[in-house]
C-alpha cells in the first residue's frame, strides 16, 4: 500500500465525520449513523483502490451499503487490493446526544490481513507501547494490572483502566478497584478507548472488558501502528453466533488473538473526531466551512500524523452535504 494512500483515506473519515457532526445532539442515532455511512461510501468512490469491506455495516441483506463483501473504490488497473474494516460513526449514541468521544474510523490492510470477525462480543485487553508484552488474557485482571505496572515502572495505583459501563462488567470493575487501579467508565466507543492507551496525554493506560468483535479488529490495526499491545477472545452469546463464526472460518472459538493476528501484515488506520474525545477534537463548524481533527497511522513506519484541516464548503460542495 502506497504511503500516499494513508493521506487519501483521511478524506474518507473526514467526510463521514462532517456529515454525522451536522446532527450532533439531535437525539437520532440512526440518522446520525446513516448520513455517516452515505458520506463514507461516496468518499470511497474517489479512491483508486480495489477494496473489499470485511468489517462494515453488516451482512448484505442487513445493510444497503458498506456491507461485508462490498467492493469499493475506482478499481482501475494497478489499483492496490486491500481489505477494509470501517465504522463510519463509532459511538452513535455519543454523537446523537452530544457526548464526547465519537469518531469515524477506517482500517486497511493488504488482502487477507484483517480477521473477518463475526458480529459477536470479544473480550479485549489493550495497552500502549510502554506495557507491550506484559498482558495475558489467560490471567486475572489483578495479575495483568500488576504485570502492566511492573513493565511501566509505576504502581498499580497509578494506572487508569477504561471499560464500558455495562452490567456485565460489574465483577471486573470490582476487581480492578480492589487491586488499587483507577477506573474510567465510558458509555460507548471502545475503539477510541483502546487507541487512547497508546497516547500518553490521554491518561488512559489499559482497556479491559467485553465489546464488539468487529471493533476489536479495527482497534488492533491502530494499536499495531502505534506499537501498543492487544489481545482478544471471542465471547459468543449463543449457539447461533458460534455457528456464524465457524462459517466465517473461525475454527477455535476460544482462541486468544494477538494484535498481529487480528490485523496482519502492513496496516494503516485513519480516524476523524466527530465529538471531542481523548485524542481528537470534534468537528467545529463556522460560516461557510468547518474544521476537522484527524489521525493517520501506518504500521510499516510507525508514523503517526495528526491532521488539522479547514474545509471551505464553496470549494468542496460534497463536504457540505
From TrEMBL:
Keywords: Carbohydrate metabolism, Hydrolase, Manganese, Metal-binding. Its cofactor is Mn(2+). Transmembrane segments: none annotated. SUPFAM superfamilies: Carbohydrate phosphatase. CDD domains: FBPase_glpX (cd01516). Mn(2+) 2 binds at residues 87, 90, 215. Substrate binds at residues 90-92, 121, 166-168, 188-190, 212. GO terms for biological process: fructose 1,6-bisphosphate metabolic process; gluconeogenesis; glycerol metabolic process. Mn(2+) 1 binds at residues 33, 57. It catalyses: beta-D-fructose 1,6-bisphosphate + H2O = beta-D-fructose 6-phosphate + phosphate. Gene3D superfamilies: 3.40.190.90, Fructose-1,6-Bisphosphatase, subunit A, domain 1 (3.30.540.10). GO terms for molecular function: fructose 1,6-bisphosphate 1-phosphatase activity; metal ion binding. The keyword Transport does not apply. One of its GO terms (cellular component) is cytosol. NCBIfam families: glpX. PANTHER family: FRUCTOSE-1,6-BISPHOSPHATASE 1 CLASS 2-RELATED, FRUCTOSE-1,6-BISPHOSPHATASE CLASS 2. Belongs to the FBPase class 2 family. This is Fructose-1,6-bisphosphatase.
Amino acid at each position: 500500500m502506497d504511503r500516499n494512500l494513508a493521506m487519501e483515506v483521511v478524506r474518507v473519515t473526514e467526510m463521514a465525520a462532517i456529515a454525522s457532526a451536522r446532527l450532533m445532539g439531535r437525539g437520532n442515532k440512526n440518522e446520525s449513523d446513516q448520513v455517516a455511512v452515505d458520506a463514507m461510501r461516496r468518499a470511497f468512490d474517489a479512491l483508486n483502490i480495489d477494496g473489499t469491506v470485511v468489517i462494515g455495516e453488516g451482512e448484505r441483506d442487513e445493510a444497503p451499503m458498506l456491507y461485508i463483501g462490498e467492493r469499493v473504490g475506482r478499481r482501475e488497473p494497478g489499483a492496490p487490493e486491500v481489505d477494509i474494516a470501517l465504522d463510519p460513526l463509532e459511538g452513535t449514541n455519543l454523537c446523537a446526544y452530544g457526548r464526547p468521544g465519537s469518531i469515524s474510523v477506517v482500517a486497511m490492510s493488504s488482502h487477507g490481513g484483517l480477521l473477518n470477525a463475526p458480529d459477536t462480543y470479544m473480550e479485549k485487553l489493550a495497552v500502549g507501547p510502554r506495557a507491550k508484552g506484559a498482558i495475558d488474557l489467560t490471567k486475572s485482571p489483578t495479575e495483568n494490572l500488576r504485570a502492566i505496572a511492573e513493565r511501566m515502572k509505576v504502581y498499580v495505583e497509578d494506572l487508569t483502566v477504561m471499560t464500558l459501563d455495562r452490567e456485565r462488567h460489574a465483577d471486573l470493575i470490582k476487581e480492578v478497584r480492589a487491586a488499587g487501579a483507577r477506573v474510567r467508565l465510558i458509555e460507548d466507543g471502545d475503539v477510541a478507548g483502546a487507541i487512547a492507551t497508546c497516547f500518553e496525554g490521554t491518561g488512559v493506560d489499559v482497556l479491559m472488558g467485553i465489546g464488539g468483535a468487529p471493533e476489536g479488529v479495527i482497534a488492533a490495526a491502530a494499536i499495531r501502528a502505534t506499537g501498543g499491545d492487544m489481545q482478544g477472545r471471542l465471547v459468543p452469546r449463543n449457539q447461533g453466533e458460534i455457528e456464524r463464526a465457524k462459517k466465517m472460518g473461525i475454527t477455535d472459538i476460544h482462541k486468544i488473538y494477538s494484535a498481529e493476528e487480528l490485523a496482519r501484515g502492513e496496516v494503516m488506520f485513519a480516524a476523524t473526531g466527530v465529538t471531542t474525545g481523548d485524542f481528537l477534537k470534534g468537528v467545529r463548524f463556522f460560516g461557510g466551512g468547518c474544521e476537522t481533527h484527524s489521525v493517520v497511522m501506518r504500521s510499516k513506519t510507525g508514523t503517526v500524523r495528526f491532521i488539522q484541516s479547514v474545509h471551505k464548503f464553496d470549494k468542496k460542495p460534497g463536504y457540505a452535504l
